[in-house]
Amino acid sequence: MTKIHPFTKLNLVFWLSIIAFILPNIYDLLILLIFDIILIILSRVPLFSKGFRKFVIIFLLANISIFIAWLLFSTRPGNVILFETSITIIPDKWIWHILITDQTLFYALSISLRTIIMFFLMLFFFAAISDRDLIHGLRSIKVPFAICLMMSLTFRGLSIFTQEYSIVRDAMKTRGVEFDKVSIIKKIKNFISIFITLIVLMFKRTEEMEASIEARGIPFRSKRRTIYHYYPFRKIDYTILCVLFLFLSFSIYLRIINGSFILMIIHLFG
Amino acid sequence: MVPIIEFNDFSWMYKASTSLVLKSINLKIHRGEFIGLMGPTGAGKSTLCRCINGLIPLRTKGWIRGTVHVLGMNTRTAKMSELGSRVGLIFQDPETQFIMMTVEDEIALGLETLGLDRNEIRQRIEWALHIVDMDGFENKTPEDLSGGEKQRVAIASILAMRPEILILDEPTSDLDPQGKNKIFQILEKIRNQFDLTIILVSHETEKILHFCNRIIVLQKGEIQFDGHPSKLFQDLALPRKIGIAVPTYLSFRSFLPESTNLLDPIVTCQDLIKNLRNVTFPFFEKEKMVPLAPKHQEPVIEVIDLSYTYPNGTQALKDINLQIYPGEFLAIIGKNGSGKTTLVKHFNGLLKAKTGKILLYQTPIDQFSISEISQKVGFCFQNPDHQLFKNTIRDEIEFGLKNLKFPQEEITLRYNEITDLLNLKQFEKTSESSLFLSKGIRQRLALASILVLKPKILIIDEPTTGQDFQMIEEFMKILQKLHSQNHTIIIITHDPRVISYYSKSIVILDNGKLIKKLPTSAFLCDTKLQQIAAFTLPTELKIIQTLQKKGLLPSSINDPKILLDALNRLLH
């Protein structure tokens, strides 16, 4: 995994997410999910580590809610009725009709699978591509220096922003501002106050960072600029990008004909 | 000899400003000079540095008159990339100078711009890190480094570009004593090894005297003094009038021969020893060390068996037991990372005690709500910008009271009281927005926004960082005034002068453990505890102790401040 160029990894994440939305069939999505899991294993994402566990649990709970919501609230006609009932919420005014068909189940499952695929791809993105690698990777493929520098500044800015957010929040607490035991409106008001301070601070920080770059005589455009960390684009990168392009084209084709790759294979081999 | 920096009748005004920041500056600086640039906050020191580096006028809009020539280039027409690579400028805040993700990338950034090949870049990175004593730090991220280390990376990234002029704009004002000492050690190394022209902006007079062979003093955009350091302190009235900190030991001058090099504390001490041999001090025996006041009252804050571990596993506090009594002026000191801020954050409920207990006025602190605590314990942060979020002085001060739903009459009454106490009314009239006030005034405003809630306990985190001598004096006088009004003052500080001359008692923390609580006078005599706390005794007190050791001052009196006071009375 380390041999793959960061730009290729970025493309993998982006285009596989798009493909997850294009593929119409649940079996194909399952194949994509298996591929996703292989990626996760290869990139050694510590799924069960203390830090990740919390996110995985939150995501799974959210995903189960999405699945149940689709199941209960969408009434898709299908070939088999699995469950049907009506619940009177307000007599003569609101009767909740629950109809679960085979199609509703497939649809809810596919939505659920798509979000799982995207979540795993996101995990892969954070685990397999460091912000530093991404910037060096982009610079190596001649993405303009100004864009790479902006990205670097954004990453640094986020780190400073997080630190300052907790300081400002503490500073407000010292003036008697409650954040926990208050109404949502009050909470929003308090957060607006924090953000006013943070925005003023960020303006100052941006100015200081800009001055620091300018003071070192670092121009956005320079013909003589060299690259210290050069990440070459290898054969494996070209191969992955080609396969990805073919996969994308094939997915679009499947979408158009509303077909399935797995069913095609089964059909082909009898 | 041709100067490498030349200002000719140079004046500058920022676009948003209404007055000149630099006025008719005429200045020549030659290669190899080590210049100390001094002056109160707002004197134009940073602007002057930016003019040499080319940021002004090449990247800043404003009104300009006259010329600046640097290394033969007119800064109006030169290229910023050329000037920036030959004139290195290091700023005050180490955090915002670190742009890239690792130390290696940070240093390489400037070198890539010079068009160097990979081998040359690697060699220069290793060389620069070696100069700043950070070998092996290549892959460290900003999060892994202390403020002092980040500042050293900033110096390394400039040195790697091999500039001809190095400008350091208050490089140590945000650092703790260890970080400061390391930067000055590096400056010493650079001065001895390279033929660099160095311009150092600092409020630390003793350091400037030690390093620089020429001092330039700015006040209100004009050069008030330009010459050898010894000349600046020939008449102490001038630096005092400008607002420059005069090292206290220089007041011994009247007792010393004219030949004494007053800029060297060691020589001063040696000459003082010679001259004091035949002097008797009849009044010394009557002096008594002021003991720590007996504790008849209940503590206002009591810490019982407190330990604290951060979510990342770092244990910040270990079994702390401490009592703070009403009316104390307490300094909490210790090296960076010793747990000072973590401890005081428990005093106002910002952190909850997981192991142990905090009693506020004999009641467990978790029984108070945030709004109740805010009226008992005030907390002033290091940077006032973190604490201010309203547009006007009135809104800022009234915010806490309105939030706690005080009646309007009470709000107006308290507002008037606090603005009178902290002398803030004049600024309400002159400035519409609190954002445009100077740092010193904003710090006072932050204090006012806390004090208006009338807490009897005040916690102040690093009140002197990045401030000039006059601002520190003014702020500390306010704290003394509050202390005299029965407020309990708790300050976290590294400033030796604040610790020695303002605090009455000291709490020393080291590696999360409370080492000792003792009266300041006792601490000033205990070199072992001073070492643990990374504390450097002010030079004049060091001299006093040397004189004591030589038997020239009575050893029965163990508060060096009393002896200093007595010595000053004798000498003047």
Task: Give the key terms.
heterodimer, A: about 270 residues, 2 domains, 9 helices, flat, B: about 575 residues, Rossmann fold, 3 domains, 6-stranded mixed sheet
Protein described:
- Chain A is mainly alpha-helical.
- Chain A folds into two domains: 179 residues, no CATH class; 75 residues, no CATH class.
- Chain A is built from nine helices and two strands, in the order H-H-H-E-E-H-H-H-H-H-H.
- Chain B has three domains: 239 residues, 3-Layer(aba) Sandwich (Rossmann fold); 68 residues, no CATH class; 236 residues, 3-Layer(aba) Sandwich (Rossmann fold), CATH 3.40.50.
- In chain B, the strands form four sheets. A six-stranded mixed sheet of chain B has the order 6-7-8-3-9-10, sandwiched between helices.
- In chain B, helix 19 links the parallel strand 17 and strand 18.
- In chain B, helix 7 packs parallel to helix 8 and helix 12 runs parallel beside helix 23.
- The radius of gyration of chain B is 25 Å and the shape is globular.
- The chains are: A mainly alpha (270), B alpha/beta (572).
- Chains A and B meet through helix 5, helix 6 and helix 7 of A and helix 3, helix 4, helix 5, helix 6 and helix 14 of B.
